[in-house]
Amino acid sequence: GIYTTLTQTPEHILTQANNKTEILCELKEHTGVYWYRWSHERQHFEFLVFSNALGKATYGTNVSQDRFSVREARSHSSYSLHISDLHPSDSGTYYCSVSQSSQLLLGTGTQLRVVDDLPLPPKTTQTPVSKKPVLWITKSKAASRRGPCSPLVWIPLAAGVLLLLLGLVPTAHRLYRLRRRLWLRIHRQ
């Protein structure tokens, strides 16, 4: 199948507490967009909100509907996560995600860091620091370096399991109703 690439902008956000921020996610087809947060501090992957094609939102446990919202851009090809009244505990890597061919595709990720006070810019009298070459780490290298418990390995896996479980709820409910109907029929006779 054709796989959608989910591009998120910006890659990094550094902001002060009590501010608001917006993370943009570009996608081609939209049947619903999920938003997740990976908390580096708590080593925890958390479901925040799902917004369906009609714009109806379903929120995760303990996620404030007053602070988190998903908005659709006019172009219908991008969706943004808005977070208001930011707290340092909101820091983490945010991922937009879509379900495609029974797989959960994650976006490129946006690192949000919320601090009480922004660091002061360096003084202009300092001598310029020479730029060091940037070391690029591919996902496979990062996974092999950290071992099988790398977040790059288990985050998509956990998200897939979560999506699978969410998909089983309507089926379980249908089976329960069918079983109840059969039970009522048997006991009427």
UniProtKB/TrEMBL annotation:
Highest taxon in the source lineage: Eukaryota
One BP term from GO: adaptive immune response
Gene3D superfamilies in alphabetical order: Immunoglobulins
Membrane topology: Single-pass type I membrane protein
Domain Ig-like: 4-107
Transmembrane segments: 153-176
Subcellular location: Membrane
Signal sequence region: none
SMART domains membership: IG, IGv
InterPro entries linked to this entry: CD8B, Ig-like_dom, Ig-like_dom_sf, Ig-like_fold, Ig_sub, Ig_V-set
MF terms (GO), sorted A to Z: coreceptor activity; MHC class I protein binding
Keyword Zinc set for record: no
Keywords: Adaptive immunity, Disulfide bond, Glycoprotein, Immunity, Immunoglobulin domain, Membrane, Signal, Transmembrane, Transmembrane helix
Assigned GO CC terms: cell surface; membrane
Protein name: CD8B protein
Name of the encoding gene: Cd8b
